[in-house]
Amino acid sequence: MCGINGFFSKSLNTYNDIITAMNMAISHRGPDTNGKWEDKNSGIVLGHQRLSIIDITSAGNQPMQSFSKRYILTFNGEIYNHLEIRNELKINNSKIIWRGNSDTETLIEAIDFWGIETTLKKIEGMFAFGLWDKKTHSLILARDRIGEKPLYYGWQGEGINKVFLFGSELKALKVHPEFKGEINRDTIALQLRYNCIPAPYSIYKNIYKLQPGNYLELKENDLKKGLIPNTINYWSLKNCAIYGNINQIKLSDVDFQKDLERQLKLSVKKQMMSDVPLGAFLSGGIDSSLIVALMQSESIKSINTFTIGFSENEYNEALYAKKIANHLGTNHTELYVSSKNALEVIPQLPTIYDEPFSDSSQIPTIILSKLAKKHVKVALSGDAGDELFCGYNRYLISKNFSNILNLIPLNLRKILASAIKVIPSQNWSKLSKFLPKYNQYNNFGDKLHKGADVLGARTQFDLYYMLRSHWHDPSEIIKNCNEPKTILNKFNSEVKNLNSQEQMMFLDILTYLPDDILVKLDRAAMSSSIETRVPFLDHKLIEYAWKIPQYLKYRDGKGKWILRKILSKYVPKTLTDRPKMGFAVPIDMWLRGPLKDWAENLLSQKRLQQEGYFNSKLIRDKWSDHLSEKRNWQSDLWDILMFQAWIDENGQ
């Protein structure tokens, strides 16, 4: 895990100072060493900050030049099958004299030997890189298949000062003297809808995110003309999902469990490759517990596990995580988080995330990363189990929604929704304590109100889109805004052979996972200079998962059926069989308590009117409802608060 950046300019008079500043801006991503490389004749400069994980010697330093001297590489990530690729290169090309054992060197020599397209299809891992080809005078930018590693790019400046910038984080781009930083009001709407700004957009005009599974190539003439070519897709989730759905594997339930367990173990084993201390995040849920169990089965000594808890019981999974860790025999460390801890983290959020980002689980993820950093340099995570194996509540809701669509007319559903929302959410939660069927659900009233919101959905896709949206009409609240089109609001059933649950899972892997979950994880971990790895995102495992019949993922009213079966071999069901909690934090309570003054300052009517971004009345109404506990608007309010905090930090 590292930080990469670079730029192309027609004028390189002060390039050394600029690339040094760009490196320093992302030094948290790689505090071990840094490097820079330039070609004045071509106008290209590459920078790198290194977090040494594989081959921690100087032989792995970057930017790295290929043995043939043709290519220069600045690379962020890990190539888990690099030893296999290196062996293949040794068999096919005896001319290479290897300098070290890093996966960076393996990658650049593979590109030199096979070319970019073939190499991208061969490598397994998480990555983003910039590559300069001295022979063709072209710059190549590439990103991994699912989007674990970030990569921003775009043009800034005018005329002779026009510059093409790229980097792991916006911080690196922003220190370049030609960076203008003009806010794109339209993309604020995306943040309010999805709590993040999805690729290819960013908060700034003319700055983009390279989408997962893609690369782009800029020839020197393109660079000189200020052009950006179309991106090239080298791996397609759509093709993966369609092919897997058509070519379902036929095995017994038991054989499927054995085969999937073998695939998972293989991924975990590959991702445990490290020359530095390694551990895992353990929430106590199905996914992280399974990853930890498989890690422990592959290790002769106790692995390191880390979890955080909350004093508010309805948000606390730490008790379960501790029991699971004790059962598996891990070396477990836990930390209980208070509102005071949150207050200490909140001022850092606009800097850590670079652009408005409002998934509130960012807070515990940052704190967990800080905790883990004291003991390890690499941590495995259980993320992506929900998307691959049907774990989110929205998938479970969709299973029953077709009956509602058919049995209850739309007008009657709207009346029912209004009746539900007349009763405050906290009253529904209190009532649920007396109903055996519902008293197991945390925040039952909030869930019921959210369910009422989607009773007006006309189709299964409407249901999904509404469940994914925080503010259902962001253009109503943002002044002078035209919400951009995304994959979700222009979805045209490209995977119509999938059922409604599978379509939701497909869209989440395509959008929610890379734009929200993986952004949250990457920035939180890298802010503490710790590398995170996600075994569920091995692309071969993803391709295999799409060949598993849906009835093995969703069964008996529960998601992740097959994962639960595998986990039960390692951990008693009594420790894991409970309602899904997620990595939630008690933002709703904190906003009414210790965070109230902070929020009131950012949401004051005078301030909102002066800044001119939002319709202040709509925000103040929701703030008032939230404080009175009439309705829990924590998600909607957190979206606004994170934008306001970001504006504070960025001075606009």
What does this protein look like?
This protein has 29 helices and 17 strands. Helix 3 crosses helix 4 (116-122), helix 9 (253-271) crosses helix 24 (561-567) and helix 17 (410-422) packs antiparallel against helix 19. The protein has 652 residues and is α+β, with helices and mostly antiparallel strands. The strands form three sheets. It has a six-stranded antiparallel beta sheet with strand order 2-3-1-9-8-10. Strands 4-5-6-7-11-12 form a six-stranded antiparallel beta sheet.
Distance between the termini: 32 Å
* Beta-strand share of residues: 5-15%
**Oligomerization status of the protein chains:** single chain
Low-confidence stretches: none
Q: Main sheet: which strands, in order across?
A: 2-3-1-9-8-10
- The helix content, as a percent range, equals 40-55%
- Dominant shape: globular
The main pleated sheet reads as: 6 strands, antiparallel
Q: What is the SS-derived class?
A: alpha+beta
Query: Taking all residues together, what is the mean pLDDT?
Result: 91
Helix count equals: 29
Gyration radius over CA: 25 Å
Total strand segments: 17
